[in-house]
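Lab meeting minutes (informal)
Scribe: AK
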Amino acid sequence: MMNTLRFLLCAAALLAFTTTPGMAQRKPASPHETVTAMIGDAKLTITYGRPFTTKPGTTEARKIWGKLVPWDKAWRMGADQATTLVTPKDLTIGDAKLKAGTYTLYFVPSEAGASKLAISSTTGKWGIPVDEKNDVARVEVKKAATTKAVDQFTISLETAGMIKWSWENTEYSVSYKAD
């Protein structure tokens, strides 16, 4: 009983401290997000961590492509847990055919060659190290400059059947469609 009371008092004090007007609210280093798109009557879902360009706890801007995210090496495509794709229907991403199920997405960006989205059957793990042994497919993606800087890593599922992800000054994309 005494431990429960202590816990409740500590929780109330913490809540009061973090919601006091005028107190600076600290944003999480990499908040998580889930994006969805309907494929007929089924919902396609991607869940990922969204790191910022600014180094956590500082105002220091980080160089993303080629530095934080190295060229020609597997990157977890976000932060924290591995980025997860759930498709309730068979799906084609780029030229890769996937059965309905859960997959991990990661990315292999290239400065000069073809950048690739990798799709792995290994799921439910932390984002690093990236498990390349269980790739189901790797598909080439398009690379384009963004019209304005993107401070926080962002993935979107476009209604036109495109998966897009952008950060810093670059956007990548690949098509998807239900089979």
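Next up, CB showed the second protein from the same session:
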Amino acid sequence: MENNQAEHVHCLIIGSGPAGYTAAIYASRANIKPVLYQGIQPGGQLTITTEVENFPGYADGVQGPEMMVDFEKQATRMGSDVRFGLATKVDFSGHPFKVWVDEEKMIEADSVIIATGASAKWLGLPSEQRLNGFGVSACAVCDGFFFRGKDVAIVGAGDTAAEEALYLSKLCTNVHMLIRKNEMRASKVMQERVRNTANIKMYFNTETEEIIGENKVEAVRVHNNLTGEKQAIPVQGFFVAIGHTPNSDIFKGWLDMDEAGYIKTIPGTTKTNIEGVFASGDVQDKIYRQAVTAAGSGCMAALDAERYLSEKGFV
């Protein structure tokens, strides 16, 4: 699209989880007229979460999707221009920054706040992709309901895997937890809860070889990586909870990243290596990855962007 057809904005926010919406709230209040594109999953990872009990202000807890609706309503009420659309390409070589939405519309922005979050990782088995949606899932909270009263397996060893195993244990008859190493990475309290749940069976030193089934999951074939012993565990559902990948691909070549693809920011700020481009939330945070820390960094990004725009005389 030619430049003369581009829309010009002061502040473009890419992404719509707690970081993106909080950035929009703060940017709107600072009167820098933010435009926010929601991306492929409006509301981000919290839309595939049920009960959120640790976000301050929700005394009785809140459902993840409901909380993201609240965030969006607040951003809109403050004057944010919230739109459907996915950023598909960027050009940060000069001012204004260029961002293409859905591969066709071009936005020229004086400042950009990146809040694209992270996505679930997969094991990479052909059978896992073939049966994805037919008993294979990366979200126990979204799909656990379909396996009520059935046997399921879950792969993973961190807090997310432990949380999802506990969630599934309330719905399913048996939960087979497959752990690659001889210990879990989850916090002590989560490990304790898993161990104390009667219908969760833990398999240490266990690798998944294949998910068995033609059109639906019937079993999972595993082997013990110490003894080499193989077994097929009959299950109707298979859940993957092995971590996340930052959604940063379109920024590669422009922004400094670590080896995993998380965008690097100057410590104590949301500033990237390009002046005027800011990153917030899980796309730049692999340590905390909480809704409240994402929201906090969204606030920081808006304040950093406001300062930058006013120093440069854009607003």
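CB comment: Residues 122-240 form a domain with the FAD/NAD(P)-binding domain fold (CATH 3.50.50.60).
No objections, moving on.
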